[in-house]
């Protein structure tokens, strides 16, 4: 599990007991899962179809920093399945896990559509694919486009909000 996003627990995130409100955490998870799916599937049209059992095993308090980790566990024809782990960055305690969240690629009428992906991709894979498509448009006589190809960056996961901005 790679941890992709961190959230700082603020007063507006608390329930009446002074701990992180579960609904707020679930909203953060759903948003981060959607961002992950959008980046992985290459489409902004995804919807959450299913979320397995959610079991809160600990909580967080104001001022704590939590980490959200998401990994793709399966690719369907129109869907992607994710597993999620949330932990407290300060205490390193697990807050919850979700074994399976399924998001589906949809068209403008919200009907499932094939997304064409079969594996996790990383940002440098996309750069290579983009450079490859630029090469296919080249007639073989002009190599000037190669100087414009992004340099290989250190290996980073392509499934965070920051990478979405850069995708």
Description:
A hairpin with a 3-residue loop joins β4 (65-75) and β5 (79-88). Strands 1, 2, 3, 4, 5 and 6 form a 6-stranded antiparallel sheet that branches. This protein is elongated. Residues 138-167 have low confidence and may be disordered. By secondary structure, the chain is an alpha+beta fold. It starts with a strand and ends with a helix. The chain contains 3 helices and 6 strands; from the N terminus they run βαβββββαα.
Comma- or semicolon-separated keywords:
alpha+beta, 6-stranded antiparallel sheet, 6 strands, elongated, disordered C terminus
Identify the overall geometry: elongated
Order of helices and strands: EHEEEEEHH
Low-confidence stretches: 138-167
Give the overall average pLDDT: 82
Q: Ends: how far apart?
A: 22 Å
State the total count of DSSP E strands. 6
Radius of gyration, whole Å: 19 Å
Structural class by SSE content: alpha+beta
């Amino acid at each position: 599990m790679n941890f992709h996003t961190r959230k700082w627990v603020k007063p507006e995130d608390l329930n009446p007991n002074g701990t992180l409100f579960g609904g707020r955490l679930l909203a953060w998870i759903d948003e981060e899962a959607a961002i992950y799916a959008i980046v992985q599937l290459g489409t902004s049209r995804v919807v959450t179809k299913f979320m397995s059992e959610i079991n809160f095993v600990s909580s967080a308090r104001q001022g704590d920093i939590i980490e959200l980790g998401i990994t793709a566990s399966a690719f369907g024809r129109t869907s992607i399945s994710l597993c999620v782990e949330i932990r407290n960055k300060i205490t390193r305690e697990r807050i919850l896990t979700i074994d399976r969240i399924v998001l589906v690629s949809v068209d403008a009428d919200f009907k499932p559509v094939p997304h064409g992906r079969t594996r996790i991709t990383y940002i440098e894979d996309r750069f290579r694919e983009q450079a490859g498509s630029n090469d296919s448009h080249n007639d073989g006589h002009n190599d000037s486009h190669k100087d414009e190809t992004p340099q290989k960056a250190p290996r980073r996961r392509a499934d965070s909000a920051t990478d979405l901005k850069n995708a």
